[in-house]
């Protein structure tokens, strides 16, 4: 069970008084922020594009490094879009190392972050990414840790960028040069 954030005064009081866990659950749900639309119409920042390119090439650890920089530097709620994509990438990094529980946990966390966003945010097709990541999560749960090696890597999502923010591109990033000098 998730605990409430420290800023939830009623939850702190509930914990101190030792009330039932269900009280904490109710508070945790009511304390969650609602949908995020602010800045979704912005063009994707260059680091997001770089992180997406790395994600789509299957370079999940490197994607994590780039998106973590962007996520930590951002103070607006759109930062959780970056963190959600980052966590989904980290899930596949864990999966590559046959860390079933790490993959499950990161997929769950990433999906929880993405559910707050509209279908398209900063050019990212959030709905498609979430749908494909959810499919992977279901498959991993079915396989269990004993059969994690049977995961079908063809199912790993690609982050699709759409809209005018990319000069009309509606295909996944794959043919641009990263700012760090590495070519795709």
UniProtKB/TrEMBL annotation:
It comes from the Bacteria. InterPro entries: DUF309 (IPR005500), TTHA0068_sf (IPR023203). Pfam families: DUF309. Transmembrane segments: none annotated. This is DUF309 domain-containing protein.
């Amino acid at each position: 069970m998730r605990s409430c954030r420290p800023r939830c005064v009623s939850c702190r009081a509930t914990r101190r008084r030792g009330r039932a866990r269900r009280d904490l659950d109710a508070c945790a749900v009511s304390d969650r922020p609602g949908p995020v639309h602010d800045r979704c119409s912005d063009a994707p920042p260059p680091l997001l594009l770089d992180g997406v390119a790395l994600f789509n090439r299957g370079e999940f650890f490197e994607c994590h490094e780039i998106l973590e920089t962007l996520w930590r530097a951002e103070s607006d709620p759109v930062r959780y879009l970056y963190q959600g994509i980052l966590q989904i990438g980290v899930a596949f990094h864990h999966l590559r190392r046959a860390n079933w529980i790490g993959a499950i946990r990161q997929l769950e966390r990433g999906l929880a972050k993405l559910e707050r966003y509209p279908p398209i945010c900063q050019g990212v097709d959030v709905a498609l990414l979430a749908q494909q990541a959810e499919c992977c999560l279901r498959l991993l749960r079915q396989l269990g840790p004993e059969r994690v090696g049977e995961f079908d890597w063809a199912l790993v999502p690609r982050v699709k960028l759409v809209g005018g923010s990319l000069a009309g591109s509606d295909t996944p990033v794959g043919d641009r040069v990263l700012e760090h000098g590495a070519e795709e």
